[in-house]
Amino acid sequence: MSRRKSDEEKDEIGSEKFIVPELTEKALLATGIRVGTIVKTKDMESFIGRTRPDGLHIIDLEKIISRVDIVGGFIARSDIKRTVVCSAREYGKTPVEMFCSLTGAIPMVGRFMPGTFTNPLFLKHIDPELVIITDPVMDAQAIDEASKAGVPVIAICDTDNVTSNVDFIIPGNNRGRRALAAIFWLLTRSVLVHLGALSPNQQLKNSIEDFETKVLEEGVK
Q1: Does any domain span residue 198?
Q2: Is 63 part of a structural domain of the chain?
Q3: Residue 156 maps to which CATH number?
Q4: Is residue 1 one of the residues assigned to a domain?
Q5: What is the pTM of this model?
Q6: How far apart are CA 219 and CA 59, in angstroms?
Q7: pLDDT of 29-77, one tens digit each?
Q8: Is position 40 within any domain?
Q9: Range(s) of the domain holding residue 76
Q10: Closest Cα partner for 172 from 58, 46, 96?
Q11: CA nearest 188: which of 200, 204, 176?
């Protein structure tokens, strides 16, 4: 069983290198974006940079950023209005909704209703061109239906995830509130840059904090 990470859990930080004009590497690392779990699957082994003395596997930050940019370019070349972004995880709600509001993709947060992708008679049926999910475990139904419909699946995967039926992996901490906000902030920026709506040197008007799900009560996961 994997150990869950708190949002405040950080790795050693030393670099002041800028990831994008408005974000330093130090600030990005502070979100916990690369802090994995104590479990490592074969599927995710190649994305792990090292293991800390406490047993937590640390994901290679360069691979996170590189893969986010690849996905950003792919989304920009796709029909964004038929790109569905799913998150059954509560911490994914605001990041997904912010990403979709800024790019035009379709948000699907909370429980995934069976038949959404596979049953044309279902009232809320969607025929997606691309599906993005925040966790292969929490969003298993969405992955299963997308695969049956022949729709490519992009998934944010932590070190303990098994990636069956996932076509492209974005490695990263998919449990942390701030980490998910950071991943979708980076992805939003990448899509807008690839679309030409934002220049590479231009700042995104929204901050990572704007993408962060606010905890209103105890027990939110």
Answers
A1: yes
A2: yes
A3: 3.40.50.10490
A4: no
A5: 0.89
A6: 27
A7: 999 999 999 999 999 999 999 999 999 999 999 999 999 999 999 999 9
A8: yes
A9: 18-211
A10: 58
A11: 204
pLDDT along the chain (221 residues), means of 10: 44 63 92 96 95 95 96 96 96 97 97 95 95 97 97 97 96 96 97 95 94 72 46
3-state SS, 148-209, equals HCCCCEEEEECCCCCCCCCCEEEECCCCCHHHHHHHHHHHHHHHHHHHCCCCCCCCCCCCHH
**Dihedral sign, Cα of residue 150, residue 111, residue 44, residue 11:** positive
Chain segment 118-127, per-residue pLDDT in tens? 999 999 999 9
Tell me how far apart the alpha carbons of residues 178 and 185 are, in angstroms, rounded to a whole number. Answer: 10
Say which DSSP state 139 is in: T
For helices 177-195 and 93-103, what crossing angle results, to 10°?
Answer: 10
Which residues are paired to 50 by β-bridges?
Answer: 58
Q: How far is CA 61 from CA 50, 64, 104, 119, in A?
A: 11, 5, 27, 39
Tell the residue number behind the tokens 């008007």, with chain if given.
205
Query: Cβ-count burial of 104 within 10 angstroms (0-12 exposed, 13-18 middle, 19+ buried)?
Result: middle
Number of other CB atoms surrounding residue 69 within 10 Å: 17
Count of structural domains, the chain: 1
Identify whether the C-beta of residue 107 lies closer than 8 Å to the C-beta of residue 94.
no
Look up residue 2 and give its DSSP letter: P
Amino acid at 72: G
- Report d(CA 133, CA 113) in Å as an integer: 14
CA–CA separation, 216 and 108 (whole Å): 21
